[in-house]
Design brief:
Elements: H1 5-25, H2 31-38, H3 42-55, H4 62-70, H5 74-81, H6 87-95
């Protein structure tokens, strides 16, 4: 099967929206769990979104990108959903700490 570049872009955009919407519906899934299991989290998605916007010539703040991914301001999401990390979660994170740590704050 051969897709045009436009078809690829449309499909990729739809997949991103489905992933974002799935994560919006799963506020019980903590970012630290995503990081420990998959090596990325909602903040990573927001960073990648911002990177893509800026690569395309669109300036975007970190807060705007996070609001797109979280569906609300980041601090609001944290207040509603984020729990304190357990000792086991923190230990796993230390073991698998991302190389680009600054991007995960």
């Amino acid at each position: 099967m051969s897709l045009s570049r436009e078809q690829e872009t449309e499909i990729e955009a739809a997949v991103f929206r489905r992933l974002r919407d799935h994560l919006l519906a799963r506020g019980d899934v903590q970012n630290i769990d995503l990081m420990n299991l998959a090596g990325f989290c909602r903040n990573c998605l927001a960073n990648w979104y911002r990177d893509a916007a800026e690569a395309g010539g669109t300036a975007m703040t970190k807060e705007t990108a996070r609001e797109i991914v979280y569906g609300m301001p980041y601090e609001e999401w944290r207040a509603l959903h984020q729990k304190d990390a357990t000792g086991d979660q923190l230990a796993a994170f230390e073991t698998n700490r991302p190389k680009d740590e600054e991007r995960h704050r």
